[in-house]
């Protein structure tokens, strides 16, 4: 008798759970969250792994190295691949194995000495990430990432401008990143530890302002890596963000290449509006080393100003 009641209770619990789960998912689908919910449901059965404070660290590190590797192959082994080399910005500069080893060495030690200890500390002191049942809405998912990028763009513009204008900061910190006048993919994180920690801290904490869903936060981290890597690849690819988005919103690799050539220009990492507002915008070169009219005009004006001064 008792066993029968217990068995009935178990069956009722399972059926009720299935019904509730179905209702939750149907509500998610009906509210336009279908694709995000499907992706978010991959966490089921992996909650211990996904909720770990180490998960976003390993996700971002693995994604960064995976994203950079194809461009490294193109730099080293694709020097005669016309289909990719025609998009190179500084055509007179080649990436060598010595440069790759140098940048990878600093990247490796930065990860071992700074990223790894920070991850261990996070594992010890940070509680597991709460995992909601529902995925974020599409509206939240999109606008919160865009807002976080805009906030970071302003933060880093100020940081970047300061570290160029204050000689001590440039000499002892930011000059590390400017060792190479022609950026290539591994230059993305070729940074002094202070700059690496600053960028990591700002990227991690910006989503806190908007109380983002974990899925939105992790997607934003990957999006930030994509935009940062794309700015350093040294190629003006036709499908790059600066060639897709309208109104010259994004600077991309051409703009950042110009920053490495003219270090007192183009301080914003992603967008162009702050540089245009504060008159630090320099028109970039294009694929194949083409210098457009607005760049030639800019260089003519700056030469005249120097003569007057």
UniProtKB/TrEMBL annotation:
InterPro entries: Fatty_acid_hydroxylase, Sterol_Desaturase_Related
Fatty acid hydroxylase domain residues: 147-279
Transmembrane segments: 54-78, 106-125, 141-159
Primary location recorded for the protein, binned into one broad class: membrane
GO molecular function: cholesterol 25-hydroxylase activity; iron ion binding
Keywords: Membrane, Oxidoreductase, Transmembrane, Transmembrane helix
Name of this chain's protein: CH25H
Taxonomic source organism: Mytilus edulis
GO biological process, one term: lipid biosynthetic process
Listed GO CC annotations: membrane
Record keyword Membrane present: yes
Protein EC: 1.14.99.38
Location in or out of the cell: Membrane
Record's keyword annotation contains ATP-binding: no
């Amino acid at each position: 008798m008792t066993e029968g009641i217990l068995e009935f209770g178990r069956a009722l619990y399972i059926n009720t759970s299935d019904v509730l789960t179905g209702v939750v998912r149907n509500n998610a689908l009906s509210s336009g969250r279908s694709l995000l919910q499907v992706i978010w449901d991959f966490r089921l059965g992996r909650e211990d792994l996904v909720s770990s404070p180490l998960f976003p660290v390993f996700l971002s590190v693995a994604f960064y190295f995976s994203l950079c590797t194809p461009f490294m192959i193109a730099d080293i082994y694709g020097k005669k691949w016309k289909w990719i080399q025609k998009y190179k910005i500084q055509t007179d500069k080649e990436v060598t194995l010595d440069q790759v080893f140098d940048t990878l060495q600093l990247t490796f030690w930065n990860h071992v000495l700074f990223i790894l200890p920070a991850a261990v500390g996070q594992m010890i002191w940070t509680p597991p990430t709460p995992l909601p049942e529902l995925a974020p809405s599409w509206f939240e998912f999109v606008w919160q990432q865009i807002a976080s990028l805009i906030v970071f763009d302003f933060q880093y513009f100020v940081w970047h401008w300061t570290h160029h204008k204050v000689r001590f900061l440039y000499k002892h910190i930011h000059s590390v990143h400017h060792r190479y006048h022609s950026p290539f993919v591994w230059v993305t994180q070729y940074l002094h530890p202070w700059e690496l920690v600053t960028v990591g801290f700002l990227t991690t904490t910006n989503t806190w302002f908007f109380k983002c869903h974990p899925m939105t936060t992790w997607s934003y981290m990957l999006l930030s890596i994509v935009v940062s890597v794309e700015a350093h690849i040294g190629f003006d690819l036709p499908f790059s963000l600066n060639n897709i988005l309208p109104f010259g919103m994004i600077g991309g690799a051409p703009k950042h290449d110009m920053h490495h050539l003219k270090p007192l220009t183009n301080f914003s990492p992603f967008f162009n509006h702050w540089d245009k507002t504060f008159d630090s915008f320099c028109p970039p070169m294009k694929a194949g080393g083409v210098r457009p009219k607005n760049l030639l005009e800019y260089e003519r004006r700056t030469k005249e100003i120097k003569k007057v001064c």
